[in-house]
Amino acid sequence: MSGHSKWATTKHRKGAKDSARAKVFAKLIRQVEVAAREGGGDPNANAALRTMYQKARDASVPIDTIERAIKRGTGELEGARYEAVTYEGYAPGGIAVIVETLTDNRNRTSAEIKHLFSKNGGSIAEPGAVSWQFERKGTIEVAGPLDEDQLLEWVLEAGGENMSRSGENFVVTTQPTELAMVRDALEGFGVKVASADLSLEAQNQIEIADESEAKRILRLIDAVDEHDDVQNVYANFDVADEILAALEE
Question: What CATH architecture applies to the domain 84-132+205-248?
Fold first, then answer.
């Protein structure tokens, strides 16, 4: 697991308990809308919508709120029209960063994301400059504690590719098209799934052993992630658990 993934998991758990929850809901609802607009409003026939629907439910977004988002996406209800725009750049230390946004004003979002990078010691790069370092994967977070050998057996039987620890939990990696199938299979074994999503995984990680450098990197990623239009932030660094723990304090 990358340091950013470990950081994001911790932050997600905290966000569900404080004022960040409203912002998390807003981002998930926007993802549901776009998935419905691009592939139709039936989760059974639209794999992306099914994933976003379940992701919203995992975060305790009310069902009626999700259903209204689907209707806005399909045009049954009025709403803003969002487009997906991806930005690539570098954090301090040359760390590769990819930012996925959904925006109703591309020019505004572009200017604001560039400002956040510049303000926090980073820089925006040309499209394709860092994306080649990442690969799209399905990721499933499994709530622990569990017997690791037993879980690995179930993961392989379910069709998962890989498994790693994330604190007391585990993260299972799948091919993007097999995310829902693997999740269903794991739940069939009685495994508690904390979250499931499509993400970008860095093919190689840069080890960050210095606490001050980790702090600079996370300051930029935090700032970008807090932007209302930003849906996901990915980076290719790895930070030791003890450094993350120190920064959380």
Answer: 2-Layer Sandwich (3.30)
Nearest CA to 208 among 242, 173, 163, 232?
242
Give CA–CA dist 133/206, Å, rounded.
12
Which residue intervals of the chain bear CATH 1.10.10.200? 3-74
CA 249 to chain centre: 23
Residue 241, token pair as written in the block: 């658990």
Which part of the chain has CATH 3.30.70.980? 84-132+205-248, 134-202
Class (C level, CATH) for 3-74: mainly alpha
What is the model's pLDDT at position 19?
54
pLDDT at residue 52, as a whole number: 92
Check: CB of residue 97 under 8 Å from CB of residue 122. yes
Which residues fall within 8 angstroms of residue 141, CB to CB, at 6 or more apart?
9, 166, 169, 170, 171, 172, 193, 194, 195, 196
134-202 has which CATH code? 3.30.70.980
Question: Is cis: bond before 43, omega within 30 of 0?
Answer: no
For the chain of 249 residues, list the mean pLDDT of each consecutive stretch of 10.
Answer: 45 48 89 94 91 91 95 91 94 95 96 98 96 94 90 95 88 93 94 89 90 92 93 90 76
pTM: 0.82
